[in-house]
């Protein structure tokens, strides 16, 4: 198969979808790989390293798309890339269709095969290609939240872990999944008082067993959230419904219950966000303030730590990408139920129910298409 690796062009996105080690594996199994010039430079991988591994370097993104059967990316195509996508071309990346109608309609129009990292799902319902980035984002959420709690950054001026004789900050984590668990670990490690809320008692029991003493668990409901936000300094939203729009757990009216200078970090922004007042921001302009509450809603948080993020992602994605290259998307998805769950669109038909429901589009079951 002919595989293309374009340079990511989203704002401050420095990750790359395939490392030189990955190129070596593709070449070893008989595939041709085109890599756009300087695609890996932000993650610390030179063109020379890709060439040594067997890739051919192409000068432009247009050339990569034009010559490739499968495009492997990190983030969803942006508007300037839409016209480059060919009918029937396999695009393997994070799509997060439920957060963007424009992207959804563009991919329907292009009639590509859209296989989304975020909906590849194991039998135990875990999401192997979302987990590594959720780990990074969960840990970064605390790092960024602590920074924006500083007074010059617009926060209320509290040190996350406090000091002797002074109470630490109160951190509220919405969702006890991968993001929430990693965020709670980081915040607790810095000495904050942490509360995790989740709708699953089984998950809360598990977290109660593994978390340190400065982490509390509380069942998630509107009443409890309204009470908890009154005393919280940092609130991290990490709620996920695979492939579908995230629920809004904090409404605009609830901001009035918060302390001035409270910081909200919405890790679910890729899926539309779990705060009603969230809208996507960038690393270049990461925050905005509504009702004296700081919102941090960067849609590609792990892009700020590309070396770590690229290696974490490609460790998980390469085995799936090799299956797609070796067998073609149809056979690979027939033989691997995890990959099959990643199919979101086939030749202009929406085959993932959460995407169809998000934008009131016709849903086409996979039966007969794969």
Summary of the model, kept short:
It is an enzyme of class 1 (oxidoreductase). Residues 149-297 form the Alanine dehydrogenase/pyridine nucleotide transhydrogenase NAD(H)-binding domain. The longest helix is centred in the C-terminal third of the chain and has 22 residues, at 306-327.
What labels would you give this structure?
7-stranded mixed β-sheet; Rossmann fold; alpha/beta; 370 residues
Detailed description of the structure:
NAD(+) binds at residues 134, 198, 203, 220, 239-240, 267-270, 298-301. Belongs to the AlaDH/PNT family. Residues 4-137 form the Alanine dehydrogenase/pyridine nucleotide transhydrogenase N-terminal domain. There is one protein chain. The protein has 370 residues and is α/β, with parallel strands linked by helices. The protein has two domains: 2-120 and 313-358, Rossmann fold (3-Layer(aba) Sandwich); 131-304, NAD(P)-binding Rossmann-like Domain (Rossmann fold), CATH 3.40.50.720. 32% of the residues lie in helices and 16% in strands. It contains twelve helices and 15 strands. The strands form two sheets. Strands 3-2-1-4-5-6-14-15 form an eight-stranded mixed β-sheet, sandwiched between helices. A seven-stranded mixed β-sheet has the order 9-8-7-10-11-13-12, with helices on both faces. Strand 2, helix 2 (47-53) and strand 3 form a beta-alpha-beta unit. Helix 1 (20-28) runs parallel beside helix 2. The protein starts with a strand and ends in a 12-residue tail after the last helix. The mean pLDDT is 96.
């Amino acid at each position: 198969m002919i595989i293309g690796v374009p340079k990511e062009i989203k704002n401050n996105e420095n990750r790359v979808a395939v490392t030189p080690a990955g190129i070596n594996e593709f070449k070893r199994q008989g595939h041709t790989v085109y890599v756009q010039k300087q695609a890996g430079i932000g993650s610390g991988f030179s063109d020379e390293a890709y060439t040594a591994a067997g890739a051919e370097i192409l000068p432009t993104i247009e050339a990569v798309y034009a010559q490739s059967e499968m495009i492997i990316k990190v983030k969803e195509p942006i508007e300037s890339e839409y016209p480059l996508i060919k009918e029937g071309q396999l695009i393997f990346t994070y799509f997060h269709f439920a957060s963007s109608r424009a992207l959804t309609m563009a991919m329907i129009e292009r009639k590509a095969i859209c296989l989304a990292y975020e909906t590849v799902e194991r039998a135990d319902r875990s999401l192997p290609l979302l987990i590594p980035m959720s780990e990074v984002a969960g840990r970064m959420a605390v790092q960024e939240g602590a920074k924006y709690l500083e007074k010059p950054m617009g926060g209320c001026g509290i040190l996350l872990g406090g000091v002797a004789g002074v109470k630490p900050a109160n951190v509220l984590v919405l969702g006890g999944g991968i993001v929430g668990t990693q965020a709670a670990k980081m915040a607790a490690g810095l000495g904050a008082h942490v509360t995790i809320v989740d709708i699953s008692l089984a998950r809360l029991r598990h977290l109660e067993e593994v978390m340190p003493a400065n982490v509390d668990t509380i069942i998630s409901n509107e009443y409890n959230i309204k009470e908890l936000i009154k005393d919280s300094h940092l609130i991290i939203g990490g709620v996920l419904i695979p492939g579908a729009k995230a629920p809004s757990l904090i409404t605009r009216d609830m901001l009035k219950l918060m302390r001035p200078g409270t910081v909200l970090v919405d890790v679910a922004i890729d899926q539309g966000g779990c705060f009603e007042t969230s809208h996507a921001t960038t690393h270049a302009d990461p925050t905005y303030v509504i009702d004296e509450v700081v919102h941090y809603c960067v849609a590609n948080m792990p892009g700020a730590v590309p070396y770590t993020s690229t290696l974490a992602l490609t460790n998980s994605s390469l085995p799936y990408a090799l299956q797609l290259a070796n067998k073609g998307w149809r056979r690979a998805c027939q033989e691997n139920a995890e990959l099959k769950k990643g199919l979101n669109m086939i030749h202009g038909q929406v085959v993932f129910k959460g995407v169809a429901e998000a934008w009131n589009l016709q849903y086409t079951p996979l039966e007969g298409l794969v």
